[in-house]
Amino acid sequence: MMIMMDYVWAFVIGGIICALVQILMEKTKMMPGRIMVLLVCTGALLSFLGWYEPFVEWAGAGASVPLIGFGHVLMKGIKEALQSEGFLGLFTGGFKSGAVGCSAALIFGYLASWVFEPKYK
Predict the structure, then answer these.
(1) Which of 9, 29, 75, 82 lies 20 to 30 A from 19 at CA?
(2) By CB neighbour count within 10 A (0-12 exposed, 13-18 middle, 19+ buried), where does 72 fall?
(3) Residue 68, Cβ density class (10 Å: 0-12 exposed, 13-18 middle, ≥19 buried)
(4) For residue 13, with 0-12 CB atoms within 10 Å meaning exposed, 13-18 middle and 19 or more buried, which class applies?
(5) What is the dihedral of CA 5, 11, 12, 17, to 10 degrees?
């Protein structure tokens, strides 16, 4: 029963994040691209402050899936690169940690365009 509650809790947190984004889109003049950047920056800020890991432990997978998680991945890579490479890690860490996800998105997006033959308007 406890495991089932964890799954429910993860959906609730993910739903709250989506609802907040929807409210931002409807009540402000922010475009979706700016809201996506806001989510990535929020994840990076939470990671920088050390609050992201406890938040994910408390909220479950619903907090780690959206763009907030990508901001955390970038900041985690920057932290690790700063420790191993020094100041230069500030510029390389985010690229190294986010490269796999970005590459996969580009490759699978390209393959999907072959399969579904998109039409331009």
Answers:
(1) 75
(2) buried
(3) buried
(4) buried
(5) 150
* Amino acid, res. 9: W
Which pLDDT score, from 0 to 100, does residue 119 have? 74
Q: Look at residue 102 and give its three-state secondary structure.
A: helix
Q: Position 10: which residue type?
A: A
The burial of 111, by beta-carbon neighbours within 10 Å (0-12 exposed, 13-18 middle, 19 or more buried), is given as exposed
**Residue 70 burial class via C-beta count within 10 angstroms: exposed 0-12, middle 13-18, buried 19 and up:** buried
Written as six digits, the tokens of 121 are: 């308007």
Q: Where are the domains of the chain?
A: 2-116
Q: Tens digit of pLDDT for each residue in 20-51?
A: 888 998 999 888 889 989 998 998 999 899 98
Residues 101, 70: contact at Cβ < 8 Å? yes
Closest CA to 30 of 41, 38, 40: 38
pTM over 0.90: no
